[in-house]
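#structure-requests
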Amino acid sequence: MTDFARGEPAPWFTAPTESQPAFDFASLGGQYVLIGFLPLDDATRVGALKMLAAHQGLFDDKTLTALAVLRDEATIAQVRDQRGLRWILDRDGAVSRLYGALDEAGAQTCHWVLLDPTLRLLAKAPVGAEAGLFAALSTLPPPQDHARTPLSAPALITPRVFEPELCRRLIALYDQTGGRASGVMRDVDGKTVAVMDPYKKRRDVLVEAPDLRAELRDALRRRLVPEIAKAFCFEATRIERYLVACYDAEEGGFFRPHRDNTTRGTAHRRFAVSINLNSEDFEGGDLRFPEFGPQTYRAPTGGAVVFACALLHEARPVTKGRRYAFLPFLYDEAAAQVREANRAHLGEQREGAAGLTAEAEDRLAPAT
């Protein structure tokens, strides 16, 4: 990306850092991000490193995070990730090429890019002429004010999707069955697998009874799908997983910021649905979309919050009681082809961990 211009979205990547084998750049939304593509020649690289060190106090992992992209082994051997500063180990140059810092002939164009909280370009400067850019870091407005106008996440809240009696039955099913610790999806060696991760603390139960699944499917088709079509001009025709989840305050239940379609095995997902089953009975636990500010979103009991799977979102920690929710994903026929094509990339998973292999594809309405 040699002509990366102000306002354009930054390319996403996954790359190793000093402390993480597969750091997900897309998880950084909601804060400013400074990326430096550091040169191989010693003198210029040392100057850039001194500039980072002089501004270390600004990098807090909440309002501003810095990423330093390294390709020389000598520096890689010396660095350690710190709060607000991660070292991207770009040995093969893939990230540098993605941002136009390295061309196919091996020529360097080392520079800094500053991204806004939606991960779009705010400013850039060459390495060696970055003093003005770094001086501006301390004058940035709070992330929630970066647009100079209030922002709202493009999320749909729809009440009265499930009747109260159905909500109670789903809670009873969970309590009777007992939830299992829920993992997250990762691509590992070309396969999408469910892994346990401290990024998430939640327990899940999969609905197995065909009659209950049909009842849930019918409620979504009749009460929610038309609202999605109206709000997003999207015709949802398929559902992935019938999953009742519980975030328990006793465990500090939460799910940190993530996106729901970033692996091969989840790339077909189009919209996430979060239907609260007992909104009056817990504190905390609401949804937040970091790229759109600090406000949180809570549907009433039986109501749904619907949002695109590509949006960065989190379930805030439950601080009192238990939050029960029904959490399917919806997609369409075009996405069903993507799912089928990617089945070969699904690795073995503990049954029920994420609902990918335990759930068959299911149409929201009978095929015609």
